[in-house]
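User: Please predict structures.

Assistant: First:
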Amino acid sequence: MKPARRPSNPLFSSGPCAKRPGWSLDALDGALLGRSHRSKPGKAKLKEVIDLTRAVLAIPGDYRIGIVPASDTGAVEMALWNLLGARGVDMVAWESFGKEWVTDVTKQLRLSDVRTIQAAYGELPDLSQVDFSRDVVFTWNGTTSGVRVPDGDWIPADREGLSICDATSAAFAMDIPWSKIDVATWSWQKVLGGEAAHGMLVLSPRAVARLESFQPDRPLPKIFRLTTAGKEGGAKLIEGIFVGDTINTPSMLCVEDAIDGLRWSLSVGGLTQLIRRSEQNLRIVSEWVAASTWAGFLADNPATRSCTSICLRFTDPEVTALTPEAQADFAKKLAALLEKEEAAFDAGSYRDAPPGLRLWGGATVENEDMEAVLPWLDWAFATVKAETFGR
């Protein structure tokens, strides 16, 4: 039967993600609209985002934190274009976005010494293959596969190369050991439900040393440049980027929204509680999957299962017997029915991923809403299956 109760907030998109509970446009009343981002109050707003980010995530004081253009994509590519080439690089990928960074490095940067370590959707590569005498690029959490690294134990403290981490759907929902990370990136629109187009770039002292000692033999457009010529030759980090002097003009409306999300994070108990909220969403779905006759996790290994991008696959024998094209059509009908009933919006799997569903379980998604949506998944599946097989 059709469930009687809908989620209070049916927004389960994996990006842009749900706003924090209780959010309204009133949260943006303090936005510095019509003023220059380079004015004293404008810089203060941008600096507040940086300071709050450091406070919530407990980022070490000697790490730089910058606001950069073009969301997480821009932040990752700034790191790749500025830092890679000093030594060989291992590219670790197991879903769509990690594979995009492989493409960037092999086909755009065309570096000569690149090793690619990959795994299929739902799996994690053998991390013991990674050579940390080289630079290493990886995603902490695969947004389109629902697979994350279990911890940072596989990253040595005495590594020679840099560890460069795309943490866009992990930051604020997973425990990232900063001593193991030299570069981290993410976007505002993920775990805290901020607005898009702005990215965050975190650099360790080792990453800064690389920037100032290594000058790549390729042109860097202004929007990518992190260094300038030093007075005595060589390169010097543009420190302004890491105190709120952004490379280009940010949206002060988005900045205000980012501040609101960060303040909310502190109000609910900081990172510990953000992680708890997200992990509880995963536990709720895990209990449901354990009793389900038609759904399973795309990530088989519980130790590598994401608590933010919760990806589900079909296990029903009749559905899995369909052709891949028919399974994809089945998944689209299922997501469309959930949207029509206003039970779950944007719950379909990523276009390149195996057919199924994807529920965002980040900290802004209330546990009660995750509980409420699951009976709707059962009802929608039964409905689409009956239509598909003429029952």
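Second:
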Amino acid sequence: MKKIKLENYHKSMGTLIDLSSMNDFMFEHHPDAINIPYHRFMLYYDQYLKKDKPYYITCSKGIHSNRVVSMLEYFGYDVTQAVK
């Protein structure tokens, strides 16, 4: 699984998706991140992602982003976990 430090992410690298709840996202998030809460993302990930684009996945503790990146790698997506 690919990982980077969130501080090393730049929007030119790809889309940054924050899996935090909407409340947590409003409290703290990377300025270039889009918020798709974990449970919604897990149900509809194929509607949000394209296999030919890179994505960086983050969350507050790294647990959900780890699961999501593992799953999406298995399905052939270009994903990297961005850890705090």
